[in-house]
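Sample entry follows:

_____
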Amino acid sequence: MSLARALALNTGVQVLGKGVSTALGIIIIGLMTRQLGTEGFGAYSTANAFLQIFALLLDLGLNVTLVALLGEHAGDEKYEKRCTSALFTLRVVMAFLILGLVAPAIALISPYPLSLKLAIIALTGSFIFPSLNQVVVGAQQRHLKMSMAAIAENVGRVIALIGLVYAQSQGWGLVPIMWFISLASFGNFIINFLSARTYADFHWNWDPAFWKMALHRSWPVGLSIAFGLAYFKADTLILSFVRPQAEVGIYGAAYRVLEILITIPFMYAGVLLPILSNAFVKKDFPKFKNLVTNSIDVMLIFCLPMMAGTWLLGERVMALVAGPEFIESGRILWVLIIAVSAIYLNTVFSHIVVAIDKQRKMIPVYVAVAIAAVIGYFLFIPVYGIWAAAWLTVASEILVGIGSLYVANKSVEIKFEPRAFLAATAASIVMSIAVWFTRDLYVAIPVFIGAIVYSMALYLFGGIRKETIQEILKAKSSNPPLV
């Protein structure tokens, strides 16, 4: 099976699974917003942002480093066993200390009300188990076996959905709902773990020498993540201290949509990274550059119609999903969708930086953007609220994207071909016209029509080559090699 088809099929499986997961996620958000209201959902958003800071610190760049190391040593089973078992053990230890002990302790001494402190403690499991899951998924990405990851994610969503329905039937509020979300995360993790054990090694492996090597390589990524979270989540935390929780809820609902949408490029990049790393180590630069060019095309094909559709239907979609109380979330989404598009492209550039081991070069970029963003949050959020948070998020993502592109292009020339961009732009315009004339119908109708029209127009304008479709659909039963 060719590399193009391998990437397409694995990304396709993930996107299909993510489609189901997203649909379930939308239902879950709708239940939560209606059950909790803007103030309760604001408390959930605050708890989520609080814990995400610890979860991002816990990452330390080890997840992308794991994928890169496995790609570089493709075929070395002994190294792979040591790598996955050692890093899984390290993650267990760090998750217990940081998320299991430190985060709840800090929550208890915070100025938040008792109900919010209890919600943070209840929600902790929803960050512990995904942190362990990252190592498991890294092994799945290495073997290009992402179907079980998609199944596990959807099982977790179903558990959360059942829990929410039961909580609603019992009249339970914020804290019990947080426990159900943590339980759902455990379900997701345990299914992935049991499945991946058939081809990956996760036994207890106390290996300080390997940890030292991995951390030496990953610390620039970890430090970048630490500063990155300053602009990615500090806005919600600052909002929670200076604005009403209802306003945090409005912003949090739109931000949840952002977080759902950006899983697609990270899924793609997770499959792409070990192949990029392998090509770079073997100095196969034509293959490397071709993968990069095609990946930029893929991101443009996704993000351009997404922006157009959000600008046309954002308010109606948020009102349908979250309820009339959250219609302003649709207007915030008009702004945040620009940040989503920047993240789509930056995902490719940042993974190139990791593949060529130039993470240290990105540290000044993240430091500068983080400092500027936090200063901006403190200055403007108390005055302009969620609009300041949204526009500063957009500015931060664009600046980080420019920095990633600059660092990556300094080492490996990134070739931009306008064909996909022009085709996606033209197709998005055609799609927008179709959506505009059907905008007053039930919102699912213009969404469906827009998707069909865009796909057809993209093909007609040459955004997707006929040969590529034929290659993807070519029937092969073997598992694709990484080399």
In short: Residues 468-483 have pLDDT under 50 and may be disordered. Residues 3-473 form one domain.
